[in-house]
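Can you please make up a whole protein chain along with its backbone structure tokens because I've never seen that pairing?
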Amino acid sequence: MKTQEFIIEGMSCGHCVMAVRKELGKLDNIKIDDVQIGKATVEFDESKSKENSIIKAIEEAGFKVIS
């Protein structure tokens, strides 16, 4: 399992946190460790999930990953 932190631009409130958590929750084979304003930390198996799918989920919530 790989643990990775994603820095997210545009988050400003608890609603933003919940929107990101909701989109990440739709993905299979990842564990959400933490979502805070400006970042999300997840664990995932690189053989089953790709970093790009996590970034896409965050973007679906309306935010931009900057790292």
